[in-house]
Amino acid sequence: MNLTQNDVAAQLLAECMPDPVATFEAFAPVNIALCKYWGKRNATLNLPVNDSLSVALAGKGSTTRLTRLPNAGGDEVFLNGTAVDAGSRFHKKVVAHIDLFRATVPGFLRVETRNDVATGAGLASSASGFAALTRALSGLYGLQLDDEQLSILARLGSGSACRSIYNGFVRWHKGVRGDGMDSFARPLPESWPELRLGLLTLTGEAKKTGSREGMQRTVDSAILYGSWPEQARRDIARLEHAIVQRDFTLLGSTAEQNAMAMHATMLASWPPLLYWQPESVQALQKVWQLREDGVQVYATMDAGPNVKLLFERASAGDVYAAFPELELIIPFE
Length: 333
Ligand code: PMV
Description:
Layout: H1 5-13, E1 23-35, E2 40-42, E3 47-48, E4 52-69, E5 76-79, E6 82-83, H2 89-102, E7 108-115, H3 125-140, H4 147-157, E8 169-172, E9 185-187, E10 195-200, H5 211-221, H6 228-245, H7 248-267, H8 278-292, E11 297-301, E12 307-312, H9 316-322, E13 327-329
Parallel strand pairs: 5-7
Antiparallel strand pairs: 1-4, 2-3, 4-7, 4-8, 5-6, 8-9, 10-12, 10-13, 11-12
Helix pairs in contact: 2-3, 3-4, 6-7
């Protein structure tokens, strides 16, 4: 049987006793994957082929305020203070996510979302956005869902959103069930106060091919994709080991190789998919030169042209000198 998103939501919400309030605000952080989620085993429910592992960007993400509109004829959506056109993709995605809850608590809402990062430029604003929206819906309706249930519901909006329910290091367990009730994220207990992330926003332009379409094309057409699940398995194990041992070289090298392997599968798709811009290649080459010069810095990239740097506090001065435009993030502040 092909389950719909509504079937899954109805199953999760069946035991809730709603106790709605008038308005509720929630925050969820952006997350950057060190082992990427790339490819779905079920596209309707966003069930992944592989486990993934991320780190949240503390304090950077989406803040979503929901207000119940007793007399309205539809949902009103605002992004960064501007009303979003009801015919737009963004509006439809937000309304579809609210619809998952609407059978439990009817009525329309005003949605006011603010993102701390550029929307649609590979900085995962959809992950923090759907996680914040899911948290806010649960709070507004007084549903008392636990984090694993929130993670499942956020995943229905955007796969990587299931990781944005938590701070710190987070692993998304792919699960094996057809209904995805075992496909949710959990936080790792370890922290890493010395860890630094650097965001290089090379272009804030929205990308042409979204990650949903990009993944599907890769799964459907790239023979090279056959090796991806094995790459992810190895890399998750290495990353967890690196985190427990605080082995930065192992963490950084594994994350960079994982990102390059993911992009290789895209390039091996047909038609080929390349999110990189000339500025992305320049940044990567600078990272590789810095490493040759003895600076421990690594790079990762998602479904967009922007490059994210990984380093430790001790290298921050050298990394800054090479990338003065860098936006510094301390994930475990
Ligand atoms: O959650 P989506 O559909 O936006 O996919 C995210 C895919 C990557 O950002 C490329 C990888 C990841 O694990 O975040």
